Amino acid sequence: MTNKKKPSRQATMTSTAGLQKKRLCGAVLLTLGLPASAQSYVNYDGSSSTDVAAAVASWAANSEFKTDWGLGAMNAQYAYAAGFSGLGIKLGSVDSGLLLTHAEFVSRNVKALAVIGTYANDGSQYQNGSQPWKAGDAFSTTGAVSTLNDKHGSHVSGSIAAAKNGAGIMGVAFASDYYITNTNGTDSSVYGVNMDYNYFKAAYGNLASAGVRVINSSWGSPDSRDDFGSIGGVAAAYQRLQGGAKKSWLDAAADVAQASNTLMVWAAGNSSKSNVNIRSALPYFRPELEQNWIAVAAVNASSVLPSFSNQCGLAKYWCLSAPGSAIPSLNITSDTALVNASGTSMAAPHVTGALGVLMERYPDLDNQAIRTILLTTSTHLGGGAVDVPNAMFGWGLPDLKKALNGPAQLLGVFNANIGSGRSDTWSNDISEAALVQRKSEEKAQLAAWQALSVSTLQAAVDSATAQVTSRVNSGYDAALALVQTRAQRNATYQASKKKEDNTAFQNADKAVAANPLAAAILKQSGTGALLSKEQLLTYVLSTDTDMVAANLALGNYKGQTAYLDAVQKKTDADYVGTLVKSGAGVLTLSGNNSYSGGTRLEGGTLAVASATALGSGALGMNDGTTLRAAADGLALGNAVSLHGEGRIDTQAFTLTLNAGIADGSGKGSLVKQGEGTLRVLGPVRYSGNTTIAAGTLSVPSFAQTSEQILTVGVASATQYGKLAVTGTASFASGARLAVDVSKAATLARGQTLGGVITAGSLSAPSLNVSDNSLLFDFRPVVANNAVDLNIVDVVSIQQVVKDTLAPATVAAAPAAVITPTASTPTASTPTASTPAASTPAASTPAASTPVASTPVASKPAASTPVASTLVAPPPAFRTSLAIASAVAATPVAPVLDRQIQHPSSGDMAQVVTALGRLPDAASLMRAASQTLPRNDSASAIRGSQASLNRVIATRVETGSSGIDGVGVGAGSGLAYGEAGADRQVWIMPFESRTNQGDRGGASGFSASTWGMAAGAEMELERGRVGISYAYAGTRTSGNTAITGTGSRGRIESNMLALYGSVALGELALGWQADLGWIGNRLSRDLQFGGLNRIASSRYHSWSAHVGANVSHTLPLSEVLGLVPALQLDYTRLQSPAYAESGAGDLSLSVQGKRSQALLLGVSTRLNYAVTAASQISSYLGASYDAINDRDDLVATYAGAPGQAFTAPGTARSAWLFKAGVSYRYQLMATADITLRLDAEGRSGFINQSAALKAGWRF
């Protein structure tokens, strides 16, 4: 809707071809409460800066930015400097096409969507009936500009989304994803009853279906009959659209908005009227559309409403005023042309682009929230209060600087959704001023409207009509005579030109002017026939002051019906602002907020940085949500209600709640977090549990039933949760006090947590204390209106292991032994006077003290049955995995028990604390097993050595193919089928996979090996001899089932071998001797009770191996041979002592180890000659390890160097079984290749390998 009252000044601008468009990439942290120096801003050239002023200036001073003065007027430079430009946001428009080849869009990947379908009704594009269609006719257009269009759509598109390319202009949302559909006409298209529902349902619907969130509508002109000067006039225009018993084009737009929740931005119109056009005014008649509607009036560079622009009027609560005068944007005369244009058509796209920028800024907010932010942060223009919209400018001029800091008002329920992993700070003051004004205005309008009636107003119209009719009927003849006399006098004068005739004419003319009816006849008749009485009556009825006033009053009354009907249904709750915090992220409110509808915390964390951050209403907290103090000394006046578990995090601050805490719609529980103090001055009335994870909870009174639980978190002997009651604290008999040690930094036997509960007056006759530590227990001491907790040790790791491995030997001890009757002192009987309470059981070493003899004075027998203690773990725990963990923990349990009693160092105290955090036997035994050395290395080395030895073994295998003239005699030293030659070289890459299962409490592993071997050999008089070098790299990964954590290793093996074969008559003797040098890099994870460490080590090992086999070839046919053999192999692996690092006092010093194996074996090979050049060989064998070393390791903790323990290695079967198959192919007389697959295994262990050998003889 371009202003057509005056021609627009045109100016053509060019842009540099091929200039690469630069986008701001990513959202930059802007308002997260960080100091300015910690933030990053974006300069115009795309570079980063920590200087916000310089970044803003780089945009504001750039010529591309300054070309459209509207960008600076809306403070867009601040949004761009913060990194927001609409990136990834889908914006669109319905308009007269876009010149897709224009330099501002050629690289923008615009989506020009097709509009295809059939018309629903007869109609035409223009009011004069041109470009008509019939119902059922097909339509098909694209978003690209066509011969039926003008420049309007291209101009509008440029203001929204023109590229930032260093030339010409840049759109407000220059990085957005832009979509357009075509109106199939020019800006002169009339948006009246002539337009078709189906066409515009497709035009708007296709954009919405593509995901467009905002659709701009600047197109077209109003019906010539429309008069927006009054409510009645706007209502009449609405009624015209509703006529004809058919759905209008505007119904199509409304249907799309409601179905897709798309925001619709409308140009307000250029009729210079006091109200917006009918499409912008639609929510006045259909209030449910208001949340999706924005009307836009125009302002010039002086922030003045141009003469052409309609005012916001009845749409002021959903209306803005944006730059719309002398706006440069795209022309369609060339691919670089620009043109200035004025009109509300130019204003609307500035708002559409601004919405896109804010949608990037607030990625989790819905369209209604974005709309609210843009409206309420706009700069007030014109008269009236600065925080409410007015009839001329509505909310005023969009301000993208202020809009970056959250809403400035709430217009109802505002959903502040902050997604998981995100944090945001809103610093604007948030009020509900517009709602307050709107309530006052609407109630006054409603009262005035209700004071009237249609009958009264119609009577006034009828009365005025009667008076006008009577006046015309009675005065028409006389008035007609006066007009006729004037005509006669004029004719006489024109014929004579005499003075007296002129005087007579002048007198007759004065007589006509003095008679209103005569004057009306003369004026309206013009040069034609004089008006009849009926024609005169029609005219006077339309112009009579009283008649016009009566009709206006009646029209305005009827026009307000739909709007005020909706107002009647509103309650006071509809005129207050409510903030709903949803999503798992964090929102901080730091403004001076005054909204009164309350705050609903439905997800994530809501932080307050001012005492009025939550306005004046109540705060309701849903289960799992957190209220966080973001400043010290805040005192909130909001009542707090809890539905489920509500968390209040003071951090290190003091936070005061003046109005108390109560249940919400359901039972509420409070979790106090943070080291600071939460002071509740009002009543405490929630009915659930209380948890003080850290810091102090101060309340005026406290009453706990036996069904409720008070939980305190313990970080150390000096840092733990405290309940401070200024008045009376009452605990019912058997009231439960739970201790949470999961985050304890230090925990040790004999510590006292003083003043866990303090009160002005305390009644605690029998506290039932529990905890989530298996090793430690907490004994309450009640005295002097306070409760202290003494830490005592309850169970040893050795006892847990014993109970798990031998449950049948552990009898359930009598309850009286475990829980003495005098375990819980009353308020009048200090614990110190009770022997059980004053003599901790920890005075006897845990390793030698059965659990049954360790007092658990803090646990009354009634609530702590023996079955729930660790004296006899429940049968469900004694699984095979639990037994394996217990076996693994057995050797180290005594050492750890001694450290629990008397930590040898500060770091060991931390280890003890971590063990104390563990809640059950399974996690305790897993933790103990994690501290053991992992024996993966020795087993993995043996696996890689086996692969290397098999590689060498292929060179000393002897036998005959059994093919006369082709086979090789026994003792040749060659592999099967190789032709004899004096010398040969070979190379063989190989790969193997090893898997060792968990056995007997020792964790297994998996290993992957890759390597390369090469060698050379020569023929001797009675055999052959060769030398070989092989390298293998192995990566190991420890199993996690037993320990719960992993281990890793990297092993590099180097082997130098001598090998050979010799014929012994019918037998053949093969031999091999090799030395290996192995580099080991190992690490293992320790993760338990909050401890998170990695123990690492590096060392070198040596290996030696000698082996021999005796074989005999038995020909079975010309192509088949059997080769049985006896084998003997001896291997020795020598590993030095090594020390770990990285695990503190749990780092191990491991003693040196010698590992040996002596394998006695038998095998047989079956060779089959497929052709003269190829052979298949299969292999089966078994060996017995006469030594079968378990690879036990002796180690000490760095924090307990004098307390060695032995970690047993994997229990292995002595029998080892082998199998393999190979295929050899002779490429030529002097070269061949061989593919070999092998496997060996024993119970719980398997090693598989593959090798490819290539050999050349010379």
TrEMBL record:
Record's compositionally biased regions (Low complexity): 821-858
Signal peptide: 1-38
Lineage: superkingdom: Bacteria
Pfam families per the UniProt record, alphabetical: Autotransporter, PATR, Peptidase_S8
Protein name from the UniProt record: Peptidase
Sequence segments annotated as region (Disordered): 821-859
Lineage: Bacteria, Pseudomonadati, Pseudomonadota, Betaproteobacteria, Burkholderiales
InterPro entries attached to this UniProt entry: Autotransporte_beta (IPR005546), Autotransporte_beta_dom_sf (IPR036709), Autotrns_rpt (IPR013425), Peptidase_S8/S53_dom (IPR000209), Peptidase_S8/S53_dom_sf (IPR036852), Peptidase_S8_His-AS (IPR022398), Peptidase_S8_Ser-AS (IPR023828), Peptidase_S8_subtilisin-like (IPR050131)
Entries under PANTHER family matching the protein: CEREVISIN-RELATED, PEPTIDASE S8
Keywords (A to Z) from UniProt: Hydrolase, Protease, Serine protease, Signal
GO molecular function, one term: serine-type endopeptidase activity
This protein's record includes keyword Hydrolase: yes
Catalytic residues as annotated in Swiss-Prot or TrEMBL: 95, 152, 345
GO BP term, pick one: proteolysis
Autotransporter domain residues: 978-1258
Similarity field: Belongs to the peptidase S8 family.
SMART domains linked: Autotransporter
